[in-house]
Amino acid sequence: MDQRLIKTLNNETIIWKYLDLSKFLDLLISRKMFLSRSDKFEDQYEGTFSEPTFEEIKELLKNKPDYLSNYKAQRKNIVISSWHANAHESFAMWQIFTKNNEGLAIQSTIGKLQNSVEYQDRAIDLQIGEVNYIDYKKEYIPFTDKYFPYLYKRKSFQYENEVRLIGDATQLNKSVNDGLKIDIDPNHLIERLYIHPRSLNWYKNLVQTIVLRLGYSFEIAKSDLESDILL
Fold it and tell me: Where does the source fall among the domains of life (predicted)?
């Protein structure tokens, strides 16, 4: 784990991924995690430069006129899995990333995420980094490391408190399309699984049955958002 990409987090930092049942089942059955191609995110600022950085790049172009075209080509090989860093479950994340009172939240840690991809094909360079939220008109984005531009976002996304598993698939020498899957060990990755707090009992029972039949033994915890009210 490159310490230049991680400043305030450590192996015990709790991270979350909120997802729907189909994506969760795909992870369990295939034992693979999907990483999205960096230029396929909805946010058009992904992987771009702030205004102060671009001013410096314009000077760089005088000696390296192909820099921007090469950078845009590389973006097609940078792949990302996004996680939410938080000591606690997030009501906002349930609202944003799940629908119809259905969905799941994987609780893990930085260390577990690192260990779960430890035996991944090392043709893909994988790192874990935390996202910095800045003013793109005023603040500088360093570009001395190929991953730095993908670890900055606008301040309006600060609620995401995002941690990224980020990789470079260039050496695979194949088209990445929308993204790619990497080998993952769900037993090493998942510390606890939370089921949507407003889901119906049949949905909760379905998830529990599937996890059991697939042979996984990680804890399925009760959401704090459905705790009994004490008066």
Answer: Bacteria
Task: Identify the bridge partners of residue 154 per DSSP, sorted by sequence position.
Answer: 134
Q: How far apart are CA 112 and CA 189, in angstroms?
A: 5
67: amino acid identity, one letter: Y
For 131-157, how does the pLDDT look when each residue is reduced to its tens digit (9 = 90+)? Answer: 999 999 999 999 888 899 999 999 999
Buried b (16+ CB within 10 A) or exposed e, 162-173: bbbbbbbbbeee
Which tens digit of pLDDT belongs to each residue from 51-66? 999 999 999 999 999 9
Q: What is the mean pLDDT of the chain?
A: 90
Confirm whether 2 is domain-assigned.
no
What gap in Å lies between CA 199 and CA 213, rounded to an integer? 21
Number of structural domains, the chain? Answer: 1
Q: What is the pTM of this model?
A: 0.91
Residue 4 domain-assigned (yes or no): no
E strand map for the chain:
14-19, 32-37, 78-85, 104-109, 125-130, 132-134, 152-154, 162-168, 179-183, 192-195, 219-221
Domain that holds residue 156: 14-224
Tell me 99's DSSP state: B
Cα→Cα distances 230→121, 197, 207, 226, Å: 50, 18, 28, 12
Cα 34 from Cα 99, distance rounded (Å): 20
Residue 19: which pLDDT band, with cuts at 50, 70 and 90?
very high
